Amino acid sequence: MADQIKVGIIGHTGRGDYGHRFDVCWRELENIKIVGLADPHEGGRAAAMKRTGAAKDFADYKKMMDETKPEIVSICTRHPDQHRDMFLAAAERGIHAYMEKPMCRTPAEADEMVEAAEKNNVKLALGYVTRYSPVLDVVSGLIMDGGIGEVMEIRGRGKEDARRGGGEDMLVLGSHLMNLIHVLGGEPEWCFARVEEGGEPVTKKHVKPGREALGPLAGDTVHAVFGLDESRIATFDSVRGTGTGRPWRFGLQIMGSKGIIEIQTGYLPPAAILQDSAWCPALSGKKWEIITSAGIGKPEPFKGDYRLEGNVVACKDLIQAIRDDRQPECDVKQGRAVIEMLNAVFESHRIGGPVKFPLETRENALGLL
Questions:
Q1: Which residue, 10, 48, 168, 225, is most buried by CB atoms nearer than 10 A?
Q2: Distance (Å, whole) CA 237 – CA 158
Q3: What's the domain count of the chain?
Q4: Measured over all CA atoms, what is the biggest interatomic distance in the chain, rounded to whole angstroms?
Q5: Pairing status of strand 96-99 against strand 124-126
Q6: Is 125 exposed, middle or buried (0-12, 13-18, 19+ CB in 10 A)?
Q7: Which of 358, 53, 61 is nearest to 188 (CA)?
Q8: In the chain, which residue ranges form alpha helices assigned H by DSSP?
Q9: Do both 126 and 140 map to the same domain?
Q10: pTM above 0.90, yes or no
Q11: 272 lies in the same domain as 314
Q12: E strand or H helix at 33
């Protein structure tokens, strides 16, 4: 890879747009030239050209890749129905990619993406920015050092808002938590779940096309349990309309024999530790302590734009991974693990029992009801 890296931007105005600033983050890196930008929407493309300073614009992303020959493309659109085709086109041309989450819609699509990455020797990094967080590094260190004793279970909850709570909440925001469960708890071995809508189990009549091109979708209530190693479990729950307060409870709680760590999402996610084996400050008199990138109870030293910095750090890691010929911190196989966990919830509900990993059903289980 040359000292100056050529980057192409792929967005789709009105169909996922440019994600969470996946276009402009490249301007914060040194020795980057944005050689092209593709967006089929003329007005959106013109606006993105001004934001990014790209050298040339295109309506078609394949034409952009063929003419400008970038080394990396930033697949910015949030709608996952486009992700597989965009990445396969890049991989076939030997181009690496940074991609907005979720990676795709089904395990079958994820399998194709893993195969393409391996066949063409290209890297794919996913924009789960919590993975690149210095706060997560501190949390991981505390867990490894026994700061909350033996990890017994991990509890996750979605945002549970009135619009997306349930199945959509799980696919869009819950995917962040599935990724963190995978990181902190290891590979899941099985999943047992139930999905409801209007107080009854989801059936074919409830399934509709999901917003943001998520595929077949249903459920205003999701309850899922994942079996991890050493008889530990992780749970994910989302009940529409119950997440009414701020700060919200969207995040993970890692429950240990000597205490609890809570962490939410983002490059500098809110995090705290309760060193209390009873898990009950009212009885023990113990107090929650804030965790920052500097440690327990210390002020956060980072003062920049943390909403942008997560992408910047992820892009730097991707570039270094290419140079070192290693996988990015959050790579294509971890993206597939998230997609399998999400689809396992619907597959377990469909068959009315636990399912094992890797899933046998590689399509969207709701489409099989």
A1: 10
A2: 7
A3: 2
A4: 67
A5: parallel
A6: buried
A7: 358
A8: 42-52, 61-68, 83-92, 107-120, 134-144, 167-172, 174-185, 281-284, 306-324, 332-351
A9: no
A10: yes
A11: no
A12: strand 32-38
169 and 258 share one domain: yes
Counted residue by residue, the chain has a size of 369
The 10 Å Cβ neighbour count of residue 139 is 26
> 54 and 24, same structural domain?
yes
Tell me which H or E stretch contains 291.
strand 289-292
**Residue (of 29, 81, 85, 78) closest to 53 by Cα position:** 29
Same domain, 57 and 166: no
Q: Please give the residue range of the domain that contains residue 242.
A: 132-300+339-356
One domain, residues 166 and 123: no
Per-residue exposure over 211-246, b if at least 16 CB sit within 10 Å of its own CB, e if not: ebbbbbbbbbbbbbbbbbeeebbbbbbbbbebbeee
- Nearest of 84, 67, 66 to residue 75 by alpha carbon: 84
Q: Residue holding tokens 């009315």?
A: 352
Asked whether 48 and 23 are in contact (CB, 8 A), the reply is yes
Q: Name residue, tokens 């993105």.
A: 48
**Taking a C-beta distance cutoff of 8 angstroms, is the pair 158, 108 a contact?**
no
Q: DSSP E strands: which ranges in 189-257?
A: 190-197, 200-201, 208-209, 216-217, 221-227, 233-239, 251-256
pLDDT, one tens digit for every residue, the chain (369 residues): 678 999 999 999 999 999 999 999 999 999 999 999 999 999 999 999 999 999 999 999 999 999 999 999 999 999 999 999 999 999 999 999 999 999 999 999 999 999 999 999 999 999 999 999 999 999 999 999 999 999 999 999 999 999 999 999 999 999 999 999 999 999 999 999 999 999 999 999 999 999 999 999 999 999 999 999 989 999 999 999 999 888 889 999 999 999 999 999 999 999 999 999 999 999 999 999 999 999 999 999 999 898 899 999 999 999 999 999 999 999 999 999 999 999 999 999 999 999 999 999 999 999 999
Distance separating alpha carbons of residues 97 and 100, to the nearest angstrom: 10
Quote the tokens at residue 79: 């709608």
Residue in this structure with the two tokens 């050689």, named with its chain if needed? 35
Dihedral of the alpha carbons of 98, 266, 306, 241, in degrees to the nearest 10: 120
